[in-house]
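re: the backbone from monday

yeah here it is again, tokenized this time
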């Protein structure tokens, strides 16, 4: 509880330190507007038109329903891959034999194109939530698994011997010695897995469902409605950035204070 209270207390300072990120976003929007002037509204609508369309869309409760459906599918799929991938990765990283045996499986999962998994999932599960969730799990699991495996494998033997020689209690070994090191590997894997899950969920919805942001994107594509398509893209990117930079990044900074 104290850990999360400290994160909340330091949150304003974290926001104040984000001016560089805001400046880069504004620069991106400026380049976007330049592209609109070069290629025209049909190819690349202006930021003003896109955000105006976005504002209008967000007034519709049905749009919020579509967003929540996509968030639900991405959250369930990523949650499963996060828990299973982290646990199995830590176990595999703790034993050399398990680590060697897991490498071919990870290679197969990483090498399989997401579109192939979507097609197989459509055959196995039909058109619906299970297809999307399964594809998200299969796509993001290897990323989380490898991060956890590397964190466990790179835990130095000298660090373990030091903890044992001082006869530290089990909880101090876990949270003050082992956890900070392992977390420095796991957390970037979680962020990468989250980004992969968010991309895959939209792709799977576009091909296999009639609801969600992906399905709305398919409708916009069929109608050549570029402003709506870009507005949906803005929703996807904004949702991912809120989760990563507003929720996950403060936790990362707090846990990695030991580096300073």
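seq for it, each position gets an aa:
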């Amino acid at each position: 509880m104290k850990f999360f209270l400290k994160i909340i207390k330091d949150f304003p300072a974290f926001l104040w330190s984000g001016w560089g990120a805001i400046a880069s976003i504004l620069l991106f929007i400026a380049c976007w507007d330049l592209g609109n002037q070069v290629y025209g509204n049909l190819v690349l609508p202006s930021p003003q038109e896109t955000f105006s369309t976005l504002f209008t869309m967000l007034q519709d409760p049905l749009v919020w329903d579509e967003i929540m459906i996509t968030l639900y599918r991405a959250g369930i799929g990523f949650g499963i891959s996060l828990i299973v991938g982290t646990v199995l990765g830590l176990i595999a990283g703790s034993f050399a034999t398990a680590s060697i045996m897991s490498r071919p499986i990870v290679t197969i999962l990483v090498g399989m194109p997401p579109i192939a998994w979507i097609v197989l999932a459509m055959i196995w599960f039909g058109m619906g939530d299970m297809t999307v969730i399964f594809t998200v799990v299969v796509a993001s699991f290897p990323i989380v698994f490898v991060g956890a495996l590397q964190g466990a494998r790179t835990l130095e033997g000298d660090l373990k011997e030091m903890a044992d020689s001082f006869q530290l209690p089990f909880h101090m070994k876990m949270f003050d010695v082992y956890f900070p090191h392992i977390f420095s590997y796991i957390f970037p894997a979680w962020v990468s897995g989250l980004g992969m899950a968010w991309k895959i969920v939209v792709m799977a919805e576009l091909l296999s469902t009639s609801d969600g942001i992906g399905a709305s994107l398919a409708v916009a594509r069929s109608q050549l409605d570029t402003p709506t398509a870009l507005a949906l893209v803005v929703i996807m990117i904004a949702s991912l950035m809120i989760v990563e930079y507003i929720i996950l990044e403060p936790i990362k900074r707090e846990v990695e204070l030991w580096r300073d």
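The chain has two domains: 1-36, 54-259. The longest helix spans residues 170-208.
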